[in-house]
């Protein structure tokens, strides 16, 4: 910035940081977002670059080289940094490829349920009346179904696979979206700018998409991160029970299930994917908390 | 707040993980919490739920074990000398090829105090020859025509045809029931409150969970089984191997079996545990629905079955995972059984050839199939890996044994990983005939094979039998109706206090056990 000759600050300097700058400063000043975001970033990078960074083929089994411990154990080698599993597959490579599956399930399940839940919630909140009655009824029905039990039953009947798990979770996890979106929309719809839009004759669709949705977006993001974590955890549980992702796909939940028999004498087989799962969920939750803090500072609780 | 709850859940998970790892690292410091020896109680565990204790209405290994303890058969095969001795029969006589005469021992008492009579023997046999009772034990009794009381203490059993294995089945698979009781309570009553003449009586049953056996103090003197020494045996069903190991190490259990080689190796290093390896008559196999009973499926094509056979490195699994001297099996029987030739078509590990065969069968990109299994997931996982390498993607249905075998019998299963221990009968009639002889377990329904197997089972001439079985076995191998996998040596792990020696037939006999 140049300083003019009279020594007084320019108008720009008085105005201070732009909204963009302020947002950036808030984002990077929030420890949860920085830590969660960078861990999640690393995991996403890992998933995207899996074919490049995985040292071995995650499916190649060498039975003569099974249950090799990770490098920090006495018999560990740098050849297999995290050791090998019970059929001699490189554990690090499986962990890297496994991140693809966890992220995929988390993302698609959260997106699908988000679509359903948001549509229902916003409709209920905006239109009220009978629509609200129906949606509330549906939410109550959904809440009375135990998620794990229903997904177990569905998967047991139609058979487990990646697509089935994503679909089942996506179709089950929309309740929180619907509840939160309904409440948020109820608040926003009575505000003046919505009334203004209605008076100038905007279409309902336009009001919903351009006036309501942007103003409930922050809640949507927070719920999405929660549901992302929820879906990843449920996939792990289903795979652990043998009803989720099918072997030999390297899902973290499945890796935990397969390592279960070795928990007493080779606990790292179960600890490594367990820690990976924990880290991913921690990162997503930190990020979600942070996003809420930053986008709605007055709600900080 | 939800997120806070999630946070807390996460930290608790980590703490739990750390605790578990620590428990693993300290390698289970042994503490003798329950001094079983002092209580004269042998605590054993197995992983399966026993659906019923009525021997004739189940077909699991655990049922065989219960049978040997609770009931007696007419004869007894001495595991050491291999000779048949009288058990409930004082003596026996082979009148001709199809007629056997038994003199029933006098003064033998059932657990409820009634005395064994010739009528119980005849009644048991009559029950077994009745059709449509829904019994699961078929092969060992299918040969019997009828039984007849020929004197106050003598019984004749007539076979339908010449039956080389008649004495063997009479010594192992045909326990004698108290018929007055059985007529009254039926299989349901016998299943929860069994009564027999054996060295142990059942005093408590929690179905699928726990069985308590107590020494039968009135067990008849002079039984070749010997007199029971340990006062009480408590069986518990513990489905998870790790839990069994922890309980063994902490002294809550005294005996477990089927310990995987990986864990057995580590268990051996514990101070108060002995691990005893032994061979068994069990083999693993992959069975295909070649006859298309479950509907149209890829395994109806010979090339697909052969491709599977070439795709799996059985040697590597036997050497690295099963271990303990496990060998690859090529024909549909246990190599030491009578009539079991290994001189049949052999499929070596050749994934390239497997892919070519799949392409020839019209599946250049492989296909997706259901696979059923009930045990040894650690053997199955590498097989699934090998299959996916040639493009066969599997949808695994891992269930209980009874359910899995029912599903196969009711034609719902295209492809399964199963095992069979032949009821410890050292003859191919107890395995090949069961699965290829046209019975409910026959998934290939090959008329030639059925004919040869029937031929082999209906003569005493060993040479004729061998030739007939060889023909059947080589057609089974040529057609790859089964992919026989490997033998199943097993590991028994027990407290050092227990004096018990395993036999090669996978039947623990606790009436021969005592405390050190």
From TrEMBL, chain A:
The question of whether Glycoprotein is a record keyword is answered with no
Name its cellular compartments. Cell membrane
Q: Which UniProt keywords apply?
A: Cell membrane, Membrane, Transmembrane, Transmembrane helix, Transport
Q: Which InterPro entries match?
A: BP-dependent_transpt_permease, MetI-like, MetI-like_sf, OppC_N
The record describes its membrane topology as:
Multi-pass membrane protein
Predominantly, its location class is: membrane
Record domain ABC transmembrane type-1: where? 99-288
| Sequence intervals crossing the membrane | 32-54, 101-127, 147-173, 220-245, 265-287
Q: Which GO biological-process labels does this protein carry?
A: transmembrane transport
Name of a matching Pfam family: BPD_transp_1
Q: Does the keyword Transmembrane apply?
A: yes
Per the record, the similarity remark reads: Belongs to the binding-protein-dependent transport system permease family.
Recorded protein name is Peptide ABC transporter permease
**From which organism does this entry originate?**
Thalassobaculum fulvum
